């Protein structure tokens, strides 16, 4: 199993550009999440999904969109990039069973907006 | 909504000594409390977790304790080693966001040789 994969690893955008960060998992997990990690601030939840076709907002959803058309994929779209969105983005997944809460993280995407 | 506070932000201990990191949470409905370790440039990885029906859990040199009444939980690392140097994050699940995790700000643990 590849686990959780993310592309690209690094990205530089200009203010106002849009892009999609890709996330995929091959563990048949129901739950998937997107986080951003800024220095000294831990991980903040952007959006999450509890299954294909179902998404919801986390703590910091503004400026981002998500969709979940399949169990495997959960792309994150930046609509109009701003310097405040410079961060490291992690995708994570976990099983939907109440007995299994462990989250598995992807390797992250380091995004710089100039 | 859930709020998780973690302290200290930086902890420096001598190799071989113990380290303790503490977190408090606000949502009394939270029932899952993991600790993750993140090495520089890497992804967070689960090192230990505890559920609300348990007061303490150990795994070799690592232990977690939970006080539901006071709404705080702690990570204890004994006999610290250089490879324990990393950033440690606590988290608690939040009923407000379908039991997704809300994270503390992290503790940078430095093991001095």
Q: Can you tell me the overall shape of chain B?
A: globular
Helix proportion of chain A: under 10%
Helix count of chain B equals 0
The main sheet of chain A comes to:
7 strands, mixed
H/E order of the elements of chain B?
Answer: EEEEEEEEEEE
Mean pLDDT of chain A: 93
How far apart the termini of chain A lie comes to 36 Å
Structural class of chain B: mainly beta
Tell me the β content of chain A: over 45%
Strand runs of chain A, count = 11
Our Rg estimate of chain A from Cα atoms comes to: 13 Å
Q: Please, could you describe this protein's structure?
A:
- The complex is a heterodimer of chains A (114) and B (113).
- Chain A is mainly β.
- Chain A contains no helices and eleven strands.
- In chain A, the strands form two sheets. In chain A, strands 2, 4, 5, 6, 9, 10 and 11 form a seven-stranded mixed beta sheet that branches. A four-stranded antiparallel beta sheet of chain A has the order 1-3-8-7, with no helix packed on it.
- Chain A is globular, with a radius of gyration of 13 Å.
- The model of chain A has no long low-confidence stretch (mean pLDDT 93).
- With 113 residues, chain B is an all-beta fold.
- Helix content of chain B is 0%, strand content 58%.
- Chain B contains no helices and eleven strands.
- Chain B has strands at 4-7, 10-14, 19-25, 32-38, 45-51, 56-59, 62-67, 72-77, 86-94, 100-103, 107-112.
- In chain B, the strands form two sheets. In chain B, strands 2, 4, 5, 9, 10 and 11 form a six-stranded mixed beta sheet that branches. In chain B, strands 1-3-8-7-6 form a five-stranded antiparallel beta sheet, with no helix packed on it.
- Chain B is globular, with a radius of gyration of 14 Å.
- Chain B starts with a strand and ends with a strand.
- The model of chain B has no long low-confidence stretch (mean pLDDT 94).
- The A-B interface holds A 31, 33, 35, 40-45, 48, 50, 56, 58-59, 90, 101-103, 105-108 and B 1, 6, 9, 32, 34, 42-46, 49, 89, 91, 93, 97-106.
């Amino acid at each position: 199993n590849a686990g959780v994969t993310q592309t690209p690893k690094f990205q530089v955008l200009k203010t106002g550009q849009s892009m999609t960060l890709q996330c995929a998992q091959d563990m048949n997990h129901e739950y998937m999440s997107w986080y951003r990690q800024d220095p000294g601030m831990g991980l903040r939840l952007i959006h999450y999904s509890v299954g294909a076709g179902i998404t919801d907002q986390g703590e910091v959803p503004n400026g981002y969109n998500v969709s979940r058309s399949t169990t495997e994929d959960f792309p994150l779209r930046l609509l109009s990039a701003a310097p405040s969105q410079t961060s490291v983005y992690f995708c994570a997944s976990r099983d939907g069973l109440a007995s299994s809460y462990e989250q598995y993280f992807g390797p992250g995407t380091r995004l710089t907006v100039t | 909504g859930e709020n998780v506070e973690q302290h200290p932000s930086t902890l420096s201990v001598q190799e071989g000594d113990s380290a303790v990191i503490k977190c408090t949470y606000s949502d009394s409905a939270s029932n899952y409390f993991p600790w993750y370790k993140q090495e520089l440039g890497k992804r967070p990885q689960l090192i230990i977790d505890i559920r609300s029906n348990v007061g303490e859990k150990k795994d070799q040199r690592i232990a977690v304790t939970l006080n539901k009444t006071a709404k705080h939980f702690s990570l204890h690392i004994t006999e610290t080693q250089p490879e324990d140097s990393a950033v440690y994050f606590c988290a608690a699940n939040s009923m407000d966001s379908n039991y997704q995790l809300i994270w503390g700000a992290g503790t940078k643990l430095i093991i001095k040789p």
